[in-house]
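[SOLVED] Need 3D model of a two-part complex

Original post:
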Amino acid sequence: MAEPVHAQGAASVPRALVDALRMYGLLVWTWVRAAAQYPVSMVLLSLATAIVTGLDAAAIALLFSRAPRIGGFDASEVLFLYGTSALSFGISDVALGTTERLGFHVREGSLDAILVRPVSPLVQLATEEFSPRRFGKLVPAVLVLAFALTRVDAPWTPGRVAMIPVMVLSGTAIFGGLWVLTAAVQFVLLEFHGAAKSLTYGGAFLSQYPMTVFGRDLVRGVTFVVPLAFVNWQPALYVLDRPDPLGLPDAARFASPLVAAVLCAAAALAWRAGLRHYRSTGS
Amino acid sequence: MGVLPWVWWYGLRRHSSYPLGSLTEAGTNTVFGFMRAYVLIALWEVRPSLGGYAVADAITFCFITQALIGPVQIFGGLDLAERIRNGDVAIDLYRPVGMQGWWLAEDLGRASASLLLRAGPPLIAGSLFFPFRWPGALNLAAFAVAVPLAVAVGFGMRYLVAMGMFWLHDDRGLNAVTLVMSLFFSGMILPLVVFPGALGTVARSLPWAAQIQVPADVFLGRHTGLGLAGALGFQAGWAAVLLGAGALATRAARRKLVVHGG
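Solution:
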């Protein structure tokens, strides 16, 4: 019951996907209508969410008020990294961020209630208490990215322009995969939530800055182990026409969609394995 | 007075009952410490001795902020707010000890647990991997005074936000506003010494500075003699102002609250 998609075979996967998305939209709409019962609160909270998310951009602006270049990159280039990272992370957070509560539901026993409903548990978790305030996270990202794109000194070609939406979408998929993957780990390790934040929120913070700032081993780690470098760094090297400090082949700059697909597949497998592994406490 | 040490003790016990969870949080604090340290190193490469900090000072500062996130609860929130919303606060008001004192004792217990479980890993990891400035004996002793004062200031603000529930019936808006202020003006996001001009002066005189920036400066040995007393006095002053405001708010709330059925 929990996994209707699984039972229907490959031919009906697109159909099941459409159903899941329709259900996602329906549940989102339900939660939004609930939140809209308190309109003032809703507006204030969206505004506050936007400001909190924008603090990282303010920090970057403060840094560059004290130094013209950091890690060899100027303000507009770092704001370009911030914009692409924050937009990718923001969209993935809006869509899937609440899946991080999985461990909480396991502990509280409320996952059992989720499992008996005839809707994918992932969709239920992702839409839980969906509030329009979540869209506040996208506001600073969009504003800063738009600003950075007008300022950044890149050798614009059709390919580079086309790379912008590709990198935002790939980055979104990479973060989306990380949300689901770190949620799936909580089926096994209930206390993993605290550490998962260093991958999700930590990844969002890391990808706001050029990798030249960070230690070489850290950069290797986020390139080959947790592929955060493919959220925006590798594509940005292509857009900004910069050399790769790790000296990876040029193909790496275009690998983001592939990396995103692999990570999402791994996340889907982990999620299914986690669901099968789950045993209710039963007391 | 007799019961408050017990409230402190049960707060400590309650908040140390999931040590593994606290340790994973400490792991995340450490990861963020590393990333923020690298960013600060990049800034200090361009601007050595910015704000009077050497690069080791900036790095140490960064790991202190991560160590203090838990104890001063920089992200806000107090369980009292939920109890005001659902009416359980009537029980708190019925107790033969003052409500603010009770919750302060509980919060100091929480902070102690957090200090024990969450402060160590970021500081140790930071000192192993980066140039680090350990304090002398005097500064360490002063730091041991500064941290409880920082917790008291943080509690004072969170208590006032919770008191807002009596009038607003919803603490999320207030929480969100204070979160912005406390992240930015405490030194969490960037050390306040980096803030330029008037912004820096204002930021260093607000109560949020007493939560992170001042204890970190005490740890780094930036204050000596009278300056050290002044720094601790700054914290104690804000704690007194906030707790005084909290006491007034409690009195007003007592008159405001009408419990169902009597």
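Edit: Confidence is low (pLDDT under 50) at residues 1-8 of chain A.
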